[in-house]
Amino acid sequence: MPHIRFRKIEAEHVKTMSGTLLKPLADTIKCDMDWLTFEHINSSNYCQGKSHVGNPFVEILWFEREKSVKDQVAHLLTQEIKKLTHSKEITVVFIPLQEVNYYENGEHF
After folding, report:
1. I need a labelling partner for 72 at 20 to 30 A (CA). Which of 23, 66, 92, 101 fits?
2. Strand pairing partners for 63?
3. What is the spatial distance between Cα 92 and Cα 8, in angstroms, rounded to a whole number?
4. Predicted confidence (pLDDT) at residue 109 exceeds the cutoff of 80
5. Can you spell out the DSSP letters for the chain?
6. Does the global pTM surpass 0.85?
7. Residues 71-105: b if buried by 16+ CB within 10 A, e if exposed
8. What is the torsion angle, in degrees rounded to the nearest 10, for the CA atoms of residue 34, residue 99, residue 94 and residue 27?
9. What is the per-residue pLDDT for 31?
10. φ and ψ at 96, to 5 degrees?
11. What is the pLDDT of residues 56-104, one digit of tens each?
């Protein structure tokens, strides 16, 4: 935790980012590096009955953090994705989790 999900990005790019961004993200978020999870989600987009390429989309599930931290994390992810994919439009969405709803190994966090 935090859990970072990537869509519309090649799995190899996510694998690369799990190395290059691990320390900068952990430092920015102020968490242990082994808390971060990078997940590649294979997805397809459709519009009007046809396949649509779509743009890179990143979801970050985590406990709420300050806007300045979100700004830095979004910037780090966006710059790295642009470098790897040459995409012009990248979406980063933060999904706050509530501690009251979070369990690990059946135990409340």
Report:
1. 101
2. 97
3. 12
4. no
5. --EEEEESS-HHHHHHHHHHTHHHHHHHHTS-GGG-EEEEE---EEETTEEE----EEEEEEE---HHHHHHHHHHHHHHHHHHH--S--EEEEEEEPGGG-EETTEE-
6. yes
7. ebbbebbbebbeebeebeebebebeeeeeeeeeee
8. -30
9. 96
10. -75, 135
11. 999 999 999 999 999 999 999 999 999 999 899 999 999 999 989 989 8
Question: Residue 78 belongs to what domain range?
Answer: 3-108
Q: What residue type is 8 in one-letter code?
A: K
Question: What is d(CA 80, CA 63) in angstroms, rounded to the nearest whole number?
Answer: 23
Number of domains forming the structure of the chain: 1
Q: Which long-range contacts (CB under 8 A, 24 or more apart) does 64-73 make?
A: 64/96, 65/29, 65/94, 69/28, 69/29, 70/94, 72/28, 73/25, 73/28, 73/29
CATH number reported for the structural domain that contains residue 83 in this entry: 3.30.429.10
CA distance linking residue 69 with residue 28, whole number of Å: 7
